[in-house]
Design brief:
32% of the residues lie in helices and 20% in strands. By secondary structure, it is an alpha/beta fold.
């Protein structure tokens, strides 16, 4: 039987700090960031030290929230790209660099997330691992033929087959492993750019290619990144993180 106190006690004894990175650029900041941070304070890594790294083009608009003990926020300004696809892809370079300059000196573990999500249940130390991947809710228990890997052999993200389809909205692990993942994805993206190629699902395509070659040590249930757009599954009892309502037509203008 799952006992969260055992996990928390182990990582507390190890004096663990977890970094949580999130990008809130353009209209996404006002639409989602406050709810994301407020819900994370209630549910993300309870009892552990957490440092939120917020990447935004408008630091002055980051909302103030009441932080609990052992929680802190670091705000970093980033460039706003014209296309949302470039924001998505170039975050891999930012993550690589910030791990090197800051996170590696402060935290043992890192989780990287999208901002348009809300924590609704415990997302705790049981999710920590050396290399953590998130099963994509829409491809959970579906045939591998339906997985939307990049099928273009000219792309560095090209995959003919795979075992799972992972969601780039959540990935994590030790800072060393997350840095290796992010750097590998960035190098693949830049090689594609030089060859005038763009992967089907951008950084997510490159992430899936990485995890096909470098298998994750922990794979999170879809409960850790679920959407109510999917009919309730009997075996999924405790959603931890839900997709927020999407307004792509407005937010990506």
């Amino acid at each position: 039987m799952f006992d969260p106190e055992l996990y928390d006690a182990f990582y507390t004894e190890q004096n663990v700090t977890v970094a949580l990175t999130v990008f809130a650029v353009g209209k996404y900041l006002d639409a989602y960031l406050k709810d994301f941070l407020t819900s994370a304070e209630s549910h993300f890594m309870p009892g552990l030290r957490v440092v939120y790294y917020i990447f935004t083009d408008s630091p002055e608009r980051v909302p103030e929230i009441q932080l609990g003990p052992q929680r802190s926020i670091v705000i970093m300004k980033v460039e706003k790209h014209k296309r949302w696809q470039d924001i998505s892809m170039m975050r891999m370079l930012t993550i690589t660099n910030v791990i090197e300059s800051h996170i590696r000196h402060q935290a043992q573990y890192v989780f990287c997330t999208d901002v348009d999500q809300i924590f609704v249940g415990r997302f705790g130390s049981e999710a920590l691992g050396d290399s953590v991947a998130q099963l994509h809710a829409f491809f959970y228990n579906r045939e591998a033929d339906s997985f939307t890997y990049d099928r273009n052999p000219n792309s560095m993200a090209y995959m003919y087959k795979g075992d799972h389809y992972y969601h780039a909205a959540i990935f994590g692990g030790t800072w060393e492993n997350v840095q290796r993942l992010a750097e590998s994805c960035y190098l693949g993206i830049m090689t594609d750019k030089r060859n005038q190629v763009e992967a089907l699902w951008h950084d997510e395509s490159h992430l899936n290619k990485y995890f096909w070659i470098m298998k994750p040590t922990k794979v999170l249930s879809p409960e850790y990144c679920w959407t109510t757009d999917i009919k309730q599954r009997s075996e999924l009892h405790f959603p931890r993180l839900l997709w927020a309502e999407k307004h792509y037509n407005e937010l990506r203008q």
